[in-house]
């Protein structure tokens, strides 16, 4: 029996509800966890992150099966479903907790991330401000923030912000959708 291998990457691209909703639709993604990374305060709460001073960004930890989907494709989706050219904001969500960032876990991932970033620079006309950092820690958010879109599809934020991103994802990556 072949050993099942799994990999993961931590991504920040604005509100974690958006990335969470998108990656849950992708074949080969085995789990998505909303949380926080990139800061200095251990075990932050949502209130702490929003109050500022923790240095954490809203992130998602995307677990995936590399036999089904590559890290390169995971990153291609990332560049498509958020704007990597706006510093510390996505749309009306403003603050360093909404920054664009990729947190890699090892040198092999760093190389793929850097190659992906170079490719994205050829697509985006404005300067990409996405931070690329080694993952120091990932802290899961509270249960209310996990799989938010599925739990609350009728909320205004889901209708106005998340649904258009999912439409774009389905159009561009139709063959990868569950």
Q: What's this, in brief?
A:
By secondary structure, this protein is of the alpha+beta class. The chain has helices at residues 16-23, 46-51, 71-81, 107-123, 148-151, 156-172, and strands at 7-13, 29-37, 57-64, 89-90, 93-94, 100-104, 131-134, 138-140.
Your description of this structure?
The chain has 178 residues and is of the alpha+beta class. It has one domain: Peptide Methionine Sulfoxide Reductase, Chain A (2-Layer Sandwich), CATH 3.30.1060. 35% of the residues lie in helices and 22% in strands. The strands form 2 sheets. The chain has a 6-stranded mixed beta sheet, with helices on one face. Helix 1 packs across helix 3 and helix 3 (71-81) packs across helix 4 (107-123). The model has no long low-confidence stretch (mean pLDDT 93).
Structural class: alpha+beta
Question: In what range is the share of β-strand residues?
Answer: 15-25%
Number of strands: 8
- Biggest sheet strand order reads 7-6-1-3-2-8
Label this structure with key terms.
Peptide Methionine Sulfoxide Reductase, Chain A, six-stranded mixed beta sheet, 22% strand, 178 residues, single chain, 6 helices, globular, alpha+beta
Set out the fold topology:
Layout: E1 7-13, H1 16-23, E2 29-37, H2 46-51, E3 57-64, H3 71-81, E4 89-90, E5 93-94, E6 100-104, H4 107-123, E7 131-134, E8 138-140, H5 148-151, H6 156-172
Parallel strand pairs: 6-7
Antiparallel strand pairs: 1-3, 1-6, 2-3, 2-8, 4-5
């Amino acid at each position: 029996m072949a050993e099942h291998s799994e990999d993961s990457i931590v991504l920040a691209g604005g509100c974690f509800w958006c990335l969470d909703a998108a990656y849950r639709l992708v074949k080969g993604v085995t789990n998505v966890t909303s949380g926080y990374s990139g800061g200095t305060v251990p075990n932050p709460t949502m209130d702490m992150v929003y109050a500022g001073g923790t240095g954490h960004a809203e992130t998602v930890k995307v677990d995936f099966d590399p036999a089904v989907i590559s890290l390169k494709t995971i990153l291609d989706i990332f560049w498509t479903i958020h704007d990597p050219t706006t510093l510390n904001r996505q749309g009306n969500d403003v603050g360093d907790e909404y920054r664009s960032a990729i947190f890699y876990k090892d040198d092999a991932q760093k190389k793929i991330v850097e190659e992906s970033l170079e490719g994205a620079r050829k697509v985006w006309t404005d300067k990409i401000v996405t931070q690329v950092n080694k993952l120091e820690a990932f802290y899961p958010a509270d249960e209310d923030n996990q799989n938010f879109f599925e739990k609350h599809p009728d909320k205004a934020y889901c209708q106005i912000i998340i649904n258009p991103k999912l439409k774009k994802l389905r159009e561009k990556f139709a063959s990868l959708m569950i």
